[in-house]
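WARN retry 2 of 3 for item q-0093 after timeout on previous attempt; input resubmitted unchanged.
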Amino acid sequence: MIRYVAGGALFAVLSYIGVGIEAFYKKRTAFFKEFAEFLSYAEREVTFLKTDFLALISGFIKDKKTLFSKILDDIKIQTEKGLPLLINTPYLTPEEKTFVAAFFEALGKSDFEAGSRLIKRYSLEAGERITGAEKQKRRRGSLSKSCASSGGSAF
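OK item q-0093 returned
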């Protein structure tokens, strides 16, 4: 009897861990998709309306409650206070945090023509990062969820 209870508890714990790992990779993918969405929004705004950096961020994050919008809000606050840009999220690697921070630092200091070129260059890179994040989500997220569930049921 105790074996079945322990097996059921182990199944529940491992399933929960698998779901958590899958959610982690879903958030990474969602972050990069929204970053690409921001880049296309920024390209429209900078090219046609010549919107400045802080107004660009304010216009994009209006009424949004996503991970990316929270990070954009932090970037806006750090920029207004003159602080160096720090991306604080566990969902990105240190290299990815540097990549995102470098984009916003360069965009905040560039003129409209340079900003437009910068956005186009980062749009290409964001597309590659979305593809990589989706691969990781499929490979690691779904796999860990199914392995954890089947591992828990094996006991």
